[in-house]
Amino acid sequence: MIGQIFIWWLTIQLIGLMALPLTQWLFRALPDRGYAFGKSLGLLLTGYAAWLLAMLGLAPFGRGLVLLCALAVGALGLLIAKDPRAEGQEPKAQAAASVAQKLAAIRAWLAAEWRRVLAYELVFALALLFLALLRSYQPDPWGTERPMDYALFNAIRVSGSFPPHDPWLAGYSINYYYFGYLLMALMSLASGIAEGAAYNLALALIFALAALGITGVVVSLIELTAGPQPGRRRWGAIGAAGLALVLVLLAGNQGGALEIISGSHKILELGQRDFARAVANGLGSRTRLVLDEPYTPWGDANLTTEIVPADTATDFNWWNPSRALWDASPQPGDATRYYTITEFPFFSFWLGDMHPHVMSLPFGLLALALALQTIARPTAPNYTMGWRGWAELALTGIVLGGLYLINSWDLPTYVLLYLGALLLLYARLGRAPQPAEAGAPVAGPLATLRQVWWRHFLGQALAALLAAAILFMPFHLTFRSLVGGNGLPLLPVTWTRTLLHSFLVIFGLFLVPLLFYLFAQLRRAQPADGALGIARTATRPVALAAAAPWLVGATLLLGFALGFPLLALLPIALYAIGLALDRARQPAEAFVLWAFALACLVCFGTEIVYIRDVFNSRMNTIFKFYYQVWLIWGVLASYAVWWLAPQIADKAQSLIRRIGYAVGLVLFAVLLAGALVYPWMTAVRQFRDGERVGLDGKTPPEHTPDAAAAFAWLRANTPGDAVVLEAVGDDYDQVHGIGANAVSAATGRATVLGWPGHEDQWRGGDPAVHALIGPRKDDVASIYSDTDTTRAAELLKKYSVGYIYVGAAERATYPAEGLAKLGQLGDVVFQQGDVVIYRVR
Predict the structure, then answer these.
(1) CA–CA separation, 532 vs 617, rounded Å?
(2) What is this structure's pTM?
(3) Longest dimension (CA), the chain
(4) In 3D, which of 722, 759, 762 has the Cα closest to residue 159?
(5) Structure letter (DSSP) for residue 444
(6) What is the pLDDT of residue 228?
(7) Element (H, E) at 338
(8) pLDDT tens figures, 535-545
(9) Residue partners of 441: CB distance under 8 A and separation at least 6
């Protein structure tokens, strides 16, 4: 296990090292010159180059191509990077810097910043080890979405030509956002680590890259705000970074604490009034509680009329906090409540699903860093001027556009984040010098926007958007959207609204410091202008600024009256945007305010519209967008705590304000304790009581020696594009529980049909292919069940089946007389115990 982890660590280190010159050039405005994002950027660029060459048919996807692309990323970086010692000289002098000089400059930077580099690498290594150790207790890639994740991961590993084949629909390519699986498959190929361990190490890598990215963003925000943090001040930055890691990656929502307090697994399903009564009952008498509003949980036929507190600390339900928001039924008079998915990162890593929303975490942070770099840069970009301009445009397009291929739900949020950061940059560069007189009026947001060079801004923004689309055009041409079907992709939310207590259960931990930070800006004088040395006093109509909290409160009350509590997010977002424009000369503060506002608007938007999918509800809309908000607000909340903590001791502040800050931080600490209940009841218990089995994950059949040998034979003796017939499984393997469709999932070889429900989701935007799912299931049953060899032979030829697998799932699903005739259709190439593999004649 230790050897596997070391090889995996060494592989990503080399990929990050290759990307270091490009990273330092792209993120040159950040205090750490982007070192914290080098591994993520290197993995993304290497994967992009290998994917593009394979998609264009110029090279087969495999280990050789991956290594070649990693080297190409390093060479490109040395070509583009400038020698810092040549800064300020003529372009020709900059271009003339030799590779040796550029390498010497990088070595000099590393030597000067060795403490920073060591700290970053320590965070990365500890995070990698922690998650690898956590996965070693339950490494099997089976249950919930893991079979699907494992199938796509392995299919890409063995796909020589692209687009990669769909392992659960032979003859078709994957119609899913698969780029994250490709990046993890790339790591497996480059390191030489087999699929079972590579799956778990991929999860560890995602966790570690996210930890490193979180640290980099927080430290950059602090240093852009207050400059380098030497001596004792360094501990403040370290503490903020550590807090951010806890908030984003380790903390849960308040569901775990509430489950223990109330003594009920159903606490999160309750309406507002019953929720408050259940909490009070849990803190008090803990007696049977009859509900004022009985309801039927989705998927349960029984009406819930009461809750009876129990020992939930002993019988902790770790699943329920991922369903913390329940919607009313769209049918009038229906007492059913429908859950939405409210996963948070630690739940995802504990569960072990390597799903797109999890794999996108490091690359969402990469986009965050790009936005921060954009707002902090000293000059406006010129993407279409000179070859370096085009190179920066390409890198920007890959970082933004790649999000659609990793997890398409992320693209709108991070593109808006980037565009807002770009606009704030232009707002800063376009501002006229401010009056020096004390008390002179400061230009408001609208005046600031009038000073933006709109033509240039729109040109650069359009170039970035076009690059994000064009650079991934081979994907877009081979992909049919999963959402919308034949109808509108966006539909209004008319039947329900999020209850305030549910929202605070999920995000209260982040909102407390962020709202205190936001409203602390009301009367704060702006810092001296760094370039002009002019102290700016915010004397803009104080009435509007002072009225902001009252306006939010009034909107909240109006929202309650209208049954729309989250209406208050709109004025909060608008106020934060105004402040961001006002603070455009302070890049870190402007970024924090804009990112906070954007996340507020995202949450507000999920109350208005949802993205239509096969579930025809807002379950996935809440899931995917709230997951992004968790990441963004978690990072920003740690910055807000770092900013608020010194204010308590600042005697220049009024006593009332200092007491207010202290109250806010105490409330935050209480909520943080509640959020840590979840990892305590899961990971800590597992480390204390669990049994570690290693990183080599197995599907259910592979726990038997016969199937394990059969799978090994298939991997060693069949081409990656072979079609292997196996039984059609039920989604989530709920009927037999013996690993249906494990052959395709574990080997990556395509089968005629895998989980029908998942193919139903993936092919919803392509009616012609969608119509094939039912007939394929019937055809597989005919091949295995019918005694007519002529018909079976025709079907085998129709689907280009090369091998027929007969194991426990097939024997449990199809009649013995049908299986007996398979010897007439193929030759036995493997047989051990009850497992037989036929090669079709």
Answers:
(1) 53
(2) 0.93
(3) 96
(4) 722
(5) -
(6) 75
(7) strand 336-340
(8) 344 444 445 56
(9) 435, 539, 540
